[in-house]
UniProtKB/TrEMBL annotation:
Stretches for region Disordered: 1-28
Designated name of the protein: Class I SAM-dependent methyltransferase
UniProt xrefs under InterPro entries: Methyltransf_12, SAM-dependent_MTases_sf
Natural source organism: Acetobacter sicerae
Mitochondrion among keywords: no
Length: 415
C-alpha cells in the first residue's frame, strides 16, 4: 500500500529541485567515494560471514539511491574485482537518477541499472535480492516500518541489508534551526525561496546557536545547495536513538549483524576507570550501546548491517591457518605507521578520537596482510622473525579482534 502525505509531497519536490548529495559526474574520473554501508568487503564479511563464494552472482538493490554514492561504489568494486552480479537502483527523483546514471556512464559500468519509482509502493521493487542498501532514506519516509517490512520481504534467503538512519544526540542544534526555519519559510513556499531564507539565517546565525558547536556537518554545510537544504529544510527528519533503531529492526523481523564500527558502541573503550569498566561488563550488549551513545554525544547516524531474525552469520575463524585476512581499505603498512610508540592506535569515531591498544607486534604483522597471504603464511613469516607460532596466534587473535571491531581488518570469502 502506498503511504504518502503532504510532507512527503514536499520531500519529493525537494529532491527533484536539489538532488542529494550534490555530485558532478565529471569528477568520476578523479575519485571514488568510499563509505559504509555497501562496501563490498563489508557485505562479504558482515552480511555473509565471509562464506559466500565470490564467484556467486550478487543481486543488490539500492533502495533510494539519490545521486548514487553507494550504488556507484558497490558497482565499481564489483567491476574491479570481477565479481558477477547486478546493482539495481531505485529512486523517485528523475533528477537524482539522471545524475547517478551519468556517473555510471562516466565509469563505463555495465552492471548497474536504474528504476524510477517510490519505495512507498511495493510494486516498484523488481523481485528479490541478496543484498539491499537503504542508506539515509527511512528517516525521511512517512511510514518507515512499513517500508522496512517491504524491503525485508524482498530479501532472498540468507540475504541482508545495509542501513543508515539519523541519530539525535549528534545532531544537536540541527532540529532547533529546522524549527526556526519552518516558521520563517514554511513548506508551502518554493524550494528556491526556502533555500534563500536558510542561507540568510546561516550568514547571521547567533554565536550561541548549538549548531555552531556541532562539528558533524561539514559535508552538509559545504555541500552546496543540496547539502544545506537536506540538513536544515527537509520536511521530514526523524532521528533514532540506538534503542529506538533496534526496536524498529525487531518490528521488521531484522537484527543487526554489525553496528558500524562495533567498537564505537563499547563504552569500555573510552571509560578507562576500572570500576566503571567493571560495571560496563555487567550490561547487556544493547545497554552498552545505549550508554556509549549517551556518553559520547556525537553519534549523528547509526549504520548497521542487518539480517533476518535468527539468521546471523557465523563469524569466520580468524585463527584458521587457511583464513585470508584483508584490510577493509587502508593498506596494512599505512595503518601500521599510525601506531604510536606506546602501541596505541589513535582512532576517530567522528569528532571523538580514542587510543586503541594493540599488541606490540602489530607494526610487523600489519604490512603482511595483502589479501593473498593466509594466516598460516603470515605466521610462518613471523616465525622466521623470531615469534613462535604459539605466541603468534595469541597475538593475532587479539590484533584481529581489535581491528575487526574498528572495521579495519576483515576476512576474504572463498573464490
Amino acid at each position: 500500500m502506498t503511504s504518502t502525505d503532504a510532507r512527503d509531497t514536499e520531500l519529493a519536490a525537494q529532491y527533484e529541485a536539489y538532488p542529494y548529495p550534490e555530485r558532478d559526474p565529471r569528477e568520476e574520473t578523479k575519485r571514488l567515494l568510499i563509505g559504509s554501508p555497501s562496501h563490498l568487503r563489508e557485505i562479504d564479511y558482515w552480511v555473509f560471514g565471509a562464506r559466500r563464494p565470490r564467484s556467486q552472482p550478487l543481486r543488490a538493490l539500492v533502495a533510494g539511491c539519490g545521486t548514487g554514492d553507494g550504488a556507484i561504489m558497490l558497482a565499481t568494486q564489483m567491476t574491479c574485482s570481477n565479481r558477477p552480479g547486478e546493482v539495481v537502483c531505485v529512486d523517485r527523483s528523475e533528477h537524482a537518477l539522471k545524475i547517478a546514471r551519468s556517473r555510471a556512464e562516466a565509469r563505463n559500468l555495465n552492471n548497474i541499472r536504474f528504476i524510477q519509482g517510490s519505495l512507498t509502493d511495493p510494486e516498484t521493487l523488481p523481485g528479490q535480492f541478496d543484498y539491499i542498501d537503504c542508506c539515509g532514506v527511512l528517516h525521511h519516509l512517512p511510514a518507515p516500518l512499513e517500508t522496512l517490512k517491504v524491503l525485508e520481504q524482498a530479501l532472498l534467503p540468507g540475504g541482508g541489508m545495509g542501513l543508515m538512519v539519523y541519530a539525535p544526540y549528534g545532531r544537536t542544534g540541527v532540529y532547533m534551526v529546522q524549527e526556526a526555519l519552518e516558521r520563517l519559510t514554511p513548506f508551502s513556499e518554493s524550494p528556491s525561496t526556502r533555500l534563500d531564507i536558510a542561507r540568510r539565517v546561516m550568514r547571521t546565525l547567533p554565536a550561541t546557536a548549538w549548531l555552531r558547536e556541532n562539528g558533524n556537518f561539514g559535508d552538509h554545510l559545504t555541500g552546496g545547495d543540496a547539502g544545506l537544504y537536506d540538513l536544515l529544510l527537509n520536511p521530514r527528519d526523524r532521528a533514532y536513538t540506538i534503542g529506538a533503531f533496534l526496536d524498529l529492526l525487531a518490528e521488521a523481523n531484522l537484527e543487526p549483524s554489525c553496528l558500524m564500527e562495533p567498537a564505537r558502541y563499547d563504552p569500555s573503550l573510552f571509560l578507562p576507570d576500572p570500576k566503571l569498566r567493571a560495571r560496563v561488563e555487567k550490561l547487556s550488549w544493547r545497554q552498552k550501546a545505549e550508554v556509549a551513545e549517551s556518553l559520547t554525544g556525537n553519534m549523528a547516524t547509526h549504520v548497521a548491517y542487518v539480517v533476518r531474525n535468527g539468521s546471523l552469520p557465523t563469524p569466520p575463524d580468524c585463527c584458521d591457518p587457511a583464513t585470508v585476512p584483508v584490510m577493509r581499505e587502508m593498506p596494512g603498512d599505512e595503518l601500521a605507521k599510525q601506531i604510536l610508540p606506546n602501541s596505541t592506535l589513535p582512532f576517530s569515531f567522528g569528532t571523538l578520537t580514542v587510543p586503541v591498544p594493540l599488541p606490540t607486534q602489530a607494526r610487523s604483522i600489519l604490512p603482511l596482510i595483502d589479501g593473498e597471504r593466509t594466516v598460516g603464511a603470515i605466521a610462518a613469516v613471523m616465525q622466521e622473525r623470531g615469534l613462535s607460532e604459539r605466541k603468534f596466534f595469541t597475538v593475532w587473535a587479539e590484533l584481529f579482534s581489535r581491528l575487526e571491531s574498528l572495521n579495519r581488518i576483515l576476512v576474504l570469502p572463498p573464490a
